[in-house]
Hints:
The chain has one domain (about 5-215): Glutaredoxin, CATH 3.40.30. By secondary structure, it is of the alpha+beta class. A hairpin with a 4-residue loop joins strand 1 and strand 2 (about 65). The protein has helices spanning about 5-20, 25-40, 65-70, 90-100, 100-105, 120-130, 140-145, 155-165, 170, 210-215; strands spanning about 55-60, 65, 75-80, 110-115, 135, 150, 180, 185, 195-200. The strands form two sheets. It has a seven-stranded mixed beta sheet with strand order 2-1-5-4-3-8-9. The protein has a two-stranded antiparallel ribbon with strand order 6-7.
Amino acid sequence: MSEKTLRERLADLHAERERSWDPAALQINVDQRRELVEAADASAWLAVGATVPDFELEEVDGARLTLAGLTADGPAMLVFFRFAGCPACNIALPHYERTLASGLRSLGARLVAVSPQVPERLVEIKRRHELSFEVATDRDNRLGRKLGILYAANAATQAASRAKGSFIGDTTGTGTWELPQPTLIVIGQDQRAHFVDVSPDWLVRTESDVALAAVRALAPVAA
């Protein structure tokens, strides 16, 4: 059986929620994602061709990752995701492990999955799925803010979370409602963005074949 696309896997997740969730809770989720799509301002996002702002990320196993270091020997790909317990992220990252990671390595490119969640909590998703690529913390959403990709939950989502005794800022360790919109950026050795895909709806993510094609033209090693 062929590998399902990421779109198909995320559609399955939503279909399961339609079957199993309380209708009111599902509607809050749907409305939140719709509002984010409607409010999206692409002009605020890092543009293709723009220089990527300098950064330092904390890899969950202790390494410090910088823009210069990640692009020293080839292109780099940053995949921003929400947090270790995010259901959609637990579909997307292992999918990238199966369908993208080895192809990037063959092209001499680095893949780093990035979340604002603190390392001691974020490490869980790397261990659970035995991810071969790096997983790193964007402390206090510093890079996400520079890239213009952050969002905060709307009032209905916040109220529903509070009613269940949860607060995303406690989960991530950031103390705020801010999370990155799922984003995939391909950075060349010139430290410029050569591909940018931002998804305000977190049930929409970049497909592996699209991501791989974006890197192929930049990679120093022939495919």
